[in-house]
Automatic annotation (TrEMBL):
<protein>
    <submittedName>
        <fullName>YlmC/YmxH family sporulation protein</fullName>
    </submittedName>
</protein>
<dbReference type="InterPro" id="IPR011033">
    <property type="entry name" value="PRC_barrel-like_sf"/>
</dbReference>
<dbReference type="Pfam" id="PF05239">
    <property type="entry name" value="PRC"/>
</dbReference>
<dbReference type="InterPro" id="IPR014238">
    <property type="entry name" value="Spore_YlmC/YmxH"/>
</dbReference>
<dbReference type="InterPro" id="IPR027275">
    <property type="entry name" value="PRC-brl_dom"/>
</dbReference>
<feature type="domain" description="PRC-barrel">
    <location>
        <begin position="6"/>
        <end position="76"/>
    </location>
</feature>
Amino acid sequence: MRFLALQSKDVIDASTGCKIGYVVDLEIDPLCQCIQALIVERFSAFKFICFFKGPPAIVIPIEHIITIGEDVILVHVECS
């Protein structure tokens, strides 16, 4: 799967069903050359108000990913 395909998917918390955001980057281990985590920009309806602050992001370890579907990525984290 290509990174562009991951970027187009919503990241959803499986326990609450809330939308966390979108994949913006990957954390890769240089030694084993495998993905360690997804970096997700949090979804915010008020993003346009806080344009002076950088976008809040959350790092989701690969162990917390349940499944990657056609439209969404289900993970085990808490929305805050």
